[in-house]
Amino acid sequence: MRQMVTPDEALQIILENIQTLTARTIPHADALGQTLARDIRSELDLPPFDNSAMDGYALRAADVQAASENSPVTLRVVQTIAAGDFSQVEVTPGACAKIMTGAPIPPGADAVIMREDTHENAESVAILASARPGQNIRRAGDDVRRGETVLRAGSVVRAAEWGMLASLNQAQVEVFSRPRVTILTTGDELVSPGEPLKPGQIRDSNSFTLSALVQAAGAEAGLMHVGDDTGEFEKALREAALCSDAIVTSGGVSMGDFDPVRDVLLAQATVHFWKIAMKPGKPVMFAGWKSDGRTVPVFGLPGNPVSVMVTFEQFVRPALLKMLGRRALRRVEVTAKLDAPLKSPAGKVEFVRALVAPDGDGWKANLTGDQGSGRLSTMTRANALLVVCADTTRLESGQKVVAQMTDWPEIE
Ligand code: AMP
Ligand code: MG
């Protein structure tokens, strides 16, 4: 076991000890938000047939070469084709077909003139503009060609992917299982919202922030709470391990007299590291807990409301994304200009809460206030974490700093 590691080392050790979960097949209806477990190759062309991009008239471009507003060309309207129809009737010279958006182009026609460029009569239409061959026609396979790999394993099914899977007639979809994560909060002082509060007690907020972060990562969250008692904690951990792919604890992991997570994990688990040279969130324990022939990863996060969120973001989220088979594990980073000077401790990477917003061609970072690790309000105003290197002790207003965009999804 290593006592103290850097944030980069911590993430590396964690990812080395995390495996992607197995794949399973689910109905298309359940696929939104899931992660594709295999590449999706198209077995068909999209669109499947040549069709009209406009409401208008399908005709032969050669017939209307000379057409303009001042010298219209009159064509006979011999058929009307709606979306969903399929016409085999050929458009012959001097004739045309009234056609709706999405309707198949009839044989003989090679262009569509939009309705706005016509003057409609009973059985004929005056065409007021010329057309080049192919105009307003969406060709079969324009969007997706048969045999093409359209979606890749490891990508998330968002709105567009869900729609694409439907277009490709993927009624069943192979996805990676979602990690089941038990959030195990510790602390004798904690009371749920709505319950009476005795002097010295505080409200439990970590259950909620962690639960939200777990779900936002695409995993399933279950909640447990224990007081600061080693026996109670050990029992809860055993129980949680039986039905979890990962366990996230909050509090009880530092140097206090009543820190059960530290005591139980050090005594009974394989602890990979115990402290990370970072601020906030120095006490973070990563361990493997043997249960039923499996090793369940346990993330012992600090109790302070900001520390727990920041350490989750840095270490647990990438681990859950790896379990989910995601290709991209790191947040997008931008370079932003500081709005105020910043002091930072030597020897620790500091993650500073900030609101990053566009500023001319670049980005500016507004600090969200005093960076105490208990001040959850500073997280409510933030959309980014500024990363201040271990050897940087001061940054001036206007200096550039790397910002992890914690509200943006990871991209490859
Ligand atoms: P600990 O690491 O257990 O000493 O906790 C550090 C600080 O975080 C203490 O002030 C705790 O009261 C606070 N804390 C621990 N767990 C929670 C929680 N679930 N919700 C809100 N604050 C907490
Ligand atoms: Mg505690």
Which value, in Å, is the CA radius of gyration?
30 Å
Q: Which ligands are bound? A: adenosine monophosphate, magnesium ion
What is the rounded distance between the termini? 32 Å
The coarse silhouette is elongated
Strand order of the largest sheet: 1-19-21-22-18-14-17
**Sheet of most strands:** 7 strands, mixed
> How many H/I helices?
7
Helical residue percent?
A: 10-25%
Strand tally, please?
Answer: 29
Low-pLDDT parts are none
Q: How would you describe the overall organization of this protein?
A:
With 412 residues, this protein is an alpha/beta fold. The chain is built from 7 helices and 29 strands. A 7-stranded mixed β-sheet has the order 1-19-21-22-18-14-17, with helices on both faces. Strands 8-5-7-6-10-9 form a 6-stranded mixed β-sheet, with no helix packed on it. The mean pLDDT is 97. Residues 185, 187, 189-190, 202, 204-207, 250-252, 254, 256, 302-305 line the site of adenosine monophosphate.
Question: How is this fold's topology laid out?
Answer:
Blueprint: E1 2-5, H1 7-16, E2 23-27, E3 40-41, E4 51-52, E5 56-59, E6 73-81, E7 95-99, E8 111-114, E9 118-120, E10 124-127, E11 137-138, E12 149-151, H2 159-167, E13 172-176, E14 180-186, E15 190-191, E16 202-203, H3 206-216, E17 220-226, H4 230-242, E18 246-250, H5 260-268, E19 270-276, E20 278-279, E21 283-291, E22 294-301, H6 305-323, E23 333-338, E24 342-343, E25 349-359, E26 362-367, H7 377-380, E27 384-388, E28 394-395, E29 400-405
Parallel strand pairs: 1-19, 6-7, 14-17, 14-18, 15-16, 18-22, 20-25, 23-26
Antiparallel strand pairs: 2-13, 3-12, 4-11, 5-7, 5-8, 6-10, 9-10, 19-21, 21-22, 23-29, 24-28, 25-26, 25-27, 27-29
The structure holds adenosine monophosphate and magnesium ion.
The site of magnesium ion has 6 residues, from loops.
